[in-house]
Amino acid sequence: MLRRTGQDFIAEYRLTGDFLAGRLRHVLSEDDKRYIESLVDRTRSLEDGEHLVRRGELTDECAILLEGFMFRTIESAQGRSIVGVNVPGDFVDLHGFALKRLDHDVVAAGKARLGIVPHRRLARMMEEQPGIARAMWFATLLDAAIHRKWIEMLERLDAPRQVAHHYLELHTRLGFVGLANSYAIRPPFTQIDLADMCGISAVHANRAVSKLRDANLAEIRRGTLYPKDWKALREYAQFEPDYLYGDGTLHHIEAWG
Amino acid sequence: MLRRTGQDFIAEYRLTGDFLAGRLRHVLSEDDKRYIESLVDRTRSLEDGEHLVRRGELTDECAILLEGFMFRTIESAQGRSIVGVNVPGDFVDLHGFALKRLDHDVVAAGKARLGIVPHRRLARMMEEQPGIARAMWFATLLDAAIHRKWIEMLERLDAPRQVAHHYLELHTRLGFVGLANSYAIRPPFTQIDLADMCGISAVHANRAVSKLRDANLAEIRRGTLYPKDWKALREYAQFEPDYLYGDGTLHHIEAWG
DNA sequence: CGTTCCCTTGAGTAGTTTCAATACTTGTGG
DNA sequence: CCACAAGTATTGAAACTACTCAAGGGAACG
Question: What is the DSSP string of A61-119?
Fold first, then answer.
């Protein structure tokens, strides 16, 4: 995978250099960053579609995504709902540390590589490093803020706008960790994945994709979105990235106080 | 307001006796509970529709809901989206402690009474009481789990099923804090509120309510749902309460480990 | 005792679904 | 290198769901 990340993605923070990059990372000290790096016990790879955690499983480890994409999914009799997407730098199941059992599955979307962090190290971190604990808490709250935006999207936007919004969100999140460019947004999604994110049928996901093409906003081929007009696309999807807590109205500038 | 809560709702925990009741409260020690009670600086009342926090505001306090209901809302050019509901015992803006600025508004639904907790006390709590910090973290993760269920609902369920599901969720959450009975579920919601929770028009919310009545599942009058057949209603709405982390497959039984 | 908000109903329109059929991709084994 | 299989993408038609607009009825509050 192509990697070109910010200043922290250097040998010293080889595994966790993307953690909260572009968000809260600037308030962490070098000691903090070293501490976080030292939490990782080992790495692990997953194949496309492989589960990292299943709903209801008792867990004693968390994982930070190093490469690739992952889905949070909820399966039911009616099929699969995708309730979240993760990009490199995200702790994909940090929620499991406090919850012990997750309410959802975490599944690789394409090949993925992860850094594994035992819960016992996080428990010690809570005792020793309340500032880092607060940053970890912050990271799970970012997930919650994204969940809220998805709720808002599902409540307001029609299918093509939702599809566009999902891509634009990913582009911003990939940008935080230095993985975005202005030519294409390249998640390994099928139209079925898009459908399961938007709560629509696969046929309708295809029509949504067609509509973006016909409106000359973007071309989506094999999961990759090629924007034709960034500005128009953002306006069409009503994309306002501040809920991601990067630079913008909600950005957290000061140190912890 | 009618109050009849669990064993912890006694004079000693007059304000915070409902915090995590039915979920994680059983792993807290009496010292922990006293510490949590001592976090509250004062109480505050809100009128119907009054804002506690607005999106983007810099905050230095949190609030625990003592009586009444509150909405988490996101306003946009197209109107209001309701992305969450709170019941007594919930910390309504605990997210604001780590995020500093919320991505959404917090608004009273009917009259509400709150206990105010300054961030500085929470910061000290993080240093002194990692166990309590973890319980607070847990509480915000419950919100995230509920957000995920809402996403799943919006992706899967038609309008009448969503309305029924929202009421059943509230019934379970009110039950955790001793505020549920088997005759009625009484939030102060208008059909406009229901519409904004489900992402549908007010007219369609009305038709959803009519459908529940016509199907002999429940009657909804002036916000109050009178169930005609609990079992049928739960099946109709596909309500499975385990995502709320009360008793059930996801319940957190052991002490922190 | 009116005003205001909320609820209800009808009619026509827009968005989405299902079913069905066809084509394109990718990976696998011959 | 080709053939096949499996998964993915595309298109059409008919049915359904939910939307908007519009108008009228009802309940609560001052």
Answer: EEEEEEEEEEEEEEEETTEEEEEEEE-TT-BTTTHHHHHSB-SSEEEEEEEEEEEEEEH
- Integer Cα distance of A143 and A139 in angstroms: 7
Cβ distance of B98 and A141 shorter than 8 Å: yes
Contact check, Cβ <8 Å, B155/A252:
no
Determine phi and psi for A76, rounding to 5 degrees: -150, 180
Longest dimension (CA), chain A: 56
- pLDDT bin (cut points 50, 70, 90) of residue A84 is very high
Q: Return phi, psi of residue A47, to 5°.
A: -85, 165
The answer, as to whether pTM is greater than 0.70, is yes
Tokens matching residue B174 = 């009110």
Q: What is the dihedral of CA B96, B29, A95, A177, to 10 degrees?
A: 50
Q: Is the pLDDT of residue B1 over 50?
A: no
Direct distance between the N- and C-terminal alpha carbons of chain B, in angstroms, rounded to an integer: 38
Question: Mind listing the pLDDT tens digit for each residue in A208-225?
Answer: 999 999 999 999 999 999
Question: Which residues does chain A have within 8 Å of residue B104's beta carbon, measured at their own beta carbons?
Answer: 148
What is the CA A190 to C1' D3 distance in angstroms? Answer: 25
Q: Residue A218 phi/psi, 5° resolution? A: -165, 155
Interface test with B, best of A61, A119, A154, A161 (most B CBs within 10 A): A154
B130 vs A contacts (CB less than 8 Å): 126-127, 130, 133
Question: Strands B79-86, B61-76: parallel, antiparallel or unpaired by DSSP?
Answer: antiparallel
- Over residues B171-230, the pLDDT tens digits come to 999 999 999 999 999 999 999 999 999 999 999 999 999 999 999 999 999 999 999 999
pLDDT tens, position by position, A138-162: 999 999 999 999 999 999 999 999 9
